[in-house]
Design a protein that fits this description.
single chain, D-Maltodextrin-Binding Protein, domain 2, 5-stranded mixed sheet, 12 helices, 309 residues, 3 domains, alpha/beta, LysR family transcriptional regulator, Arc Repressor Mutant, subunit A, transcription regulation, LysR_subst-bd
Length: 309
């Protein structure tokens, strides 16, 4: 008797539920959308159950569909872990690691840490995915990535923070800016008087700034809102305004003296942290576990951080 839960059809269902769109899932899988629709329809027929609901903005799984999505996610994670453990019989000679991170960590990661790791383990491969705070957490919780680097994440019961260190949000400005010439910590109200560039609402820095605005009963009116730290760097370097970011995200600019980081007098902004996260309960493959420890020990964003037990 054939198994009614066909593995390939289950994958089409999983990707459609993940992206909320049959067409987007088809693009990711490299097939025609009609193929995805037919395979899901056949799976529904085999199981005599409706698995996807169509709505104006795409699709979402039914209760039965969600049960199969979770089954596939567990199966895929178990399969990947088994394959990785087989590779580990040969030590760290082979293997692949999926890493998801906020843009602010990129320069720190690529500036030396990753190169040193590859020199030690040249046959390991790594994929890097850039994402906002919420998407980093989702990628880890859904087992799409092994390790996440994220700034000031909200608490999530699915997530384990392996390391965290305080990295306050600072005023980032040119050395000749009036606020920089004060040579003292600045108040948020003072920052509000100047042209300001900030990150989009989906990012940890912006979410924390919103809380700080509420605590001080002020409203920042940004001249520029973006999803790119690189754009904010150019905004400030071009003397178009100032921004609010953790210092490690513009470390190269601070080192060459083109920008300065000035403390902001706000308890919320001063308490922000950079985190390395994994999914709670997931046993990382050996290669990912080694990279996790390596990044915590080498990256400036986690200097002096300690592994949690």
């Amino acid at each position: 008797m054939s198994d009614p839960i066909d593995e390939n059809r289950l994958r089409y269902l999983f990707e459609s539920a993940r992206y909320g769109s049959v067409r987007t899932a088809a693009d990711a899988l490299g097939v025609n959308p009609s193929v995805v629709s037919r395979q899901i329809a056949q799976l529904e027929q085999d199981l005599d159950a409706t698995l996807l609901e169509r709505h104006s903005r795409g699709v979402r799984p039914t209760e039965a569909g969600q049960l199969l999505v979770e089954h596939y996610r567990r199966h895929a994670a178990d399969r990947d872990d088994t394959l990785t453990k087989l590779r580990e019989i040969q030590g760290l000679q082979r293997g692949h690691i999926d890493l998801v991170l906020g843009e602010g960590f990129v320069a720190d990661l690529m500036g030396g840490s990753l190169g040193e790791f590859w020199r030690r383990h040249p046959r390991l491969t790594i994929s890097l995915e850039l994402a906002g705070t919420s998407e980093v957490i989702r990628a880890i919780a859904d087992d799409r990535c092994h390790i996440g680097l994220v700034y000031h994440p909200p608490q999530d019961p699915r997530i384990r923070s392996c390391a965290a260190i305080r990295q306050p949000i600072c005023l980032i400005a040119r050395p000749d800016h009036p606020l920089a010439r004060l040579r003292r910590p600045v108040k948020l109200r003072e920052v509000a008087e100047y042209a300001l560039g900030i990150m989009h609402a989906g990012y940890g820095t912006r979410q924390l700034l919103a809380m700080a605005e509420t605590s001080e009963k002020i409203g920042l009116l940004p001249k520029l809102t973006t999803t790119s730290i690189s754009i904010l760097r150019h905004f400030v370097r071009s003397d178009l305004g100032v921004t609010l970011l953790p210092a490690f995200s513009v470390a190269a600019d601070l080192e060459d003296g083109s920008l300065v980081a000035i403390p902001v007098e706000n308890a919320l902004l001063a308490s922000a942290e950079a985190h390395v996260i994994t999914r709670l309960g997931r046993e990382l493959p050996n290669a990912a576990s080694q990279l996790l420890r390596f990044l915590i020990g080498r990256m400036k964003a986690f200097a002096a951080a300690n592994l949690t037990p």
